C-alpha cells in the first residue's frame, strides 16, 4: 500500500511557519568560525560533536579583541534591522519547556 506524502506539523495544524530569531553577534561569529573550520577539515577527519565545536569557538570568542567583537555587534545590528523590516510584527515569545512540580 503506498504511503501518503508527509506534511510538516505546521501545515497539518494550519499554524503559520515559525519565524526564526535574528542572529546575535555570537551566532554570526560562530557561523563564520564554523565555516572556516570546515574548510580546514579533510574528508577522512573524524566527526566532531557540535557541542565540542561550540565550546572551542566560545573560548576563542571570549578572548577576541574588542574591535573584532564590535564588528560582529554591528553585523548583528544590521541583521536585526533586516529582520525587523522583513517581519515587522515579530515579537520574541519563548515557550517554557520546564514542567511544574505538583
List its traits:
single chain, 102 residues, mainly alpha, 54% helix, transcription, DNA-binding, DNA-binding transcription activator activity, RNA polymerase II-specific
Annotate the secondary structure layout.
Layout: H1 9-13, H2 25-40, H3 50-62, H4 66-86
The count of DSSP E runs of length 2 or more, i.e. the number of strands, is 0
| Radius of gyration from the alpha-carbon trace, in angstroms | 19 Å
Task: Report the average pLDDT across residues.
Answer: 87
Q: Count the helices. How many? A: 4
Helix content: 40-55%
CATH homologous superfamily placement of the domain at 19-86: High mobility group box domain
Output the structural class: mainly alpha
Main beta-sheet annotation: none
The fraction of residues in strands falls at under 5%
Series of H and E elements: HHHH
Q: What is the CA–CA distance across the termini?
A: 46 Å
Give the overall form. extended
CATH architectural label of the domain at 19-86: Orthogonal Bundle
Under CATH, the topology of the domain at 19-86 can be stated as DNA Binding (I), subunit A
CATH class of the domain at 19-86: Mainly Alpha
* Residue runs with pLDDT of under 50 for 5 or more positions: none
InterPro entries: HMG_box_dom, HMG_box_dom_sf, SRY-related_HMG-box_TF-like
GO biological process, one term: cell differentiation
Protein name: HMG-box
Region (Disordered): 1-23
Amino acid at each position: 500500500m503506498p504511503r501518503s506524502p508527509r506534511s510538516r506539523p505546521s501545515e497539518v495544524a494550519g499554524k503559520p511557519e515559525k519565524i526564526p530569531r535574528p542572529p546575535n553577534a555570537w551566532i554570526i561569529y560562530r557561523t563564520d568560525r564554523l565555516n572556516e573550520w570546515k574548510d580546514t577539515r579533510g574528508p577522512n577527519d573524524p566527526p566532531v560533536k557540535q557541542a565540542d565545536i561550540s565550546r572551542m569557538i566560545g573560548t576563542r570568542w571570549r578572548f577576541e579583541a574588542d574591535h573584532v567583537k564590535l564588528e560582529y555587534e554591528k553585523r548583528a545590528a544590521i541583521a536585526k534591522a533586516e529582520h525587523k523590516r522583513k517581519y515587522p510584527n515579530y515579537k520574541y515569545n519563548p515557550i517554557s519547556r520546564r514542567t511544574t512540580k505538583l
